[in-house]
Design a protein that fits this description.
There is one protein chain. This protein is 37% helix and 12% strand. It has eleven helices and eight strands. It has an eight-stranded parallel sheet with strand order 1-2-3-4-5-6-7-8, sandwiched between helices. The two termini are 22 Å apart.
């Protein structure tokens, strides 16, 4: 199996100090900066961390390589896993500080995770609020064989289809990297079209609608046409909403296609060609026949990647993520083949030896 969604959590700002220039170490010391305060995963909640993933000596779940090895890589006999580090860089208003911390997080991922554990790959953390600085970070680190995609938080200051982000996609494609849209992100905008919700559950469920908006934006604004080799993973936003969204998208494109003449195909075809969806959370009906009907309208197992969301509590066992009606071949496609092909893992060499 390949797990496309393992969370690597920075245990604290002190872990990044060895990877920061002297100027920023001094700034952190004199200002008592403790790191980004925004967290998409409130500690202590089941959706944020499984109790078994907590470190005995303290610290956040998902910050310990040995626990990740024991509870996922070894326990599930994973061939490879993709690390996603949501450090809320986008919440830092000073662009130079955001760029420095993004670089430190990436260097920390190399030193703490990739070099000791050759089964791991990682996502490049970038200051997504500053596309030019995001490109600079991709250019700096994107050649490293341990990185397979660029991490973009799904909430952003503007839709990701906007041409301001096109240089980010160009840099990703040039380095053979995918792009991932991941839970969390920019905190200056309300996470709903009608304002701020009252409760966390509203925001958590509503992330699926934000994912829909970003997918539509990237297709309609011509990102897929401009970058035909672009690969996009949608993480932590579910996937069963896709058929209804695509039905509506295709129908209205047929009536309004004069507005966007650069689209060569119905929108659903761009999804099929460029997008993949990570399985967790598994938003699906209990009735296997109903899920089979839904998935038959989104090309079955072709678009799905297995992702446990570790240390979140999405699945007791990896196989719980596989729809019950999948054949053994479809299950293998979802659990292994799709991720291997999407992330081009056959072309990625191990980054180090096991410690």
């Amino acid at each position: 199996m390949i797990d496309a969604n393992l969370h690597a959590v920075v245990p604290g700002i002190s872990a990044l100090l060895p990877h920061l220039p002297a100027f920023w170490r001094e700034q952190i010391a004199t200002t008592a900066f403790r790191g980004p305060t925004e967290s998409a995963w409130p500690p202590g909640m089941p959706m944020s961390e499984h109790p078994s993933a907590l470190r005995p000596e303290g610290g956040p779940a998902g910050s310990d390589l040995e626990l990740l090895r024991m509870q996922t890589l070894d326990a599930w006999d994973l061939e490879q896993g993709i690390l996603n580090c949501g450090y809320a860089i986008e919440s830092i208003r000073n662009p130079d500080a955001a760029a420095a911390l993004a670089a430190a997080v990436n260097d920390w991922q190399i030193a703490r995770w990739l070099e000791p554990e050759p089964r791991l790959r990682a996502s490049v953390v970038v200051p997504s609020q500053s596309p030019a600085l995001a490109v600079a970070e991709i250019e700096r680190i994107g050649h490293h064989p341990g990185f397979v995609q660029v991490f973009l938080p799904i909430r952003s200051a503007m839709p990701y289809g906007r041409r301001e982000y096109h240089p980010v996609y160009a840099a990703a494609v040039d380095h053979g990297l995918a792009v991932s849209l991941q839970y969390g992100g920019f905190t200056g905008n309300a996470p709903t079209p009608v304002g701020w919700p009252t409760y966390l559950i509203e925001e958590y469920v509503g992330m699926a609608s934000i994912a829909q908006s970003q997918v539509m934006s990237m297709i309609i604004e011509g990102v897929c046409d401009a970058f035909p080799d672009l690969r996009v993973a949608v993480v932590d936003a579910g996937y069963t909403w896709l058929p209804a969204t695509m039905w509506r998208f295709d129908k209205n494109w047929r009536g309004l296609r004069r507005e966007v003449p650069w689209l060569r195909h119905p929108p659903s075809e761009y999804v099929r060609e460029h997008f993949r969806f990570v399985s967790g959370p598994h938003d699906a009906p209990r009735d296997g026949a109903a899920l089979a009907h839904v998935l038959s309208d989104m090309w079955g197992a072709q678009l799905l990647l297995f992702g446990s969301g570790y240390p979140q509590d999405h699945h007791a066992q990896p196989r719980d993520a596989v729809p019950s009606h999948f054949s053994p071949a479809e299950a293998n496609q979802m659990m292994f083949d799709n991720a291997r092909d999407f992330y081009r893992l056959d072309a990625t060499m191990p980054t180090g030896g096991r410690s």
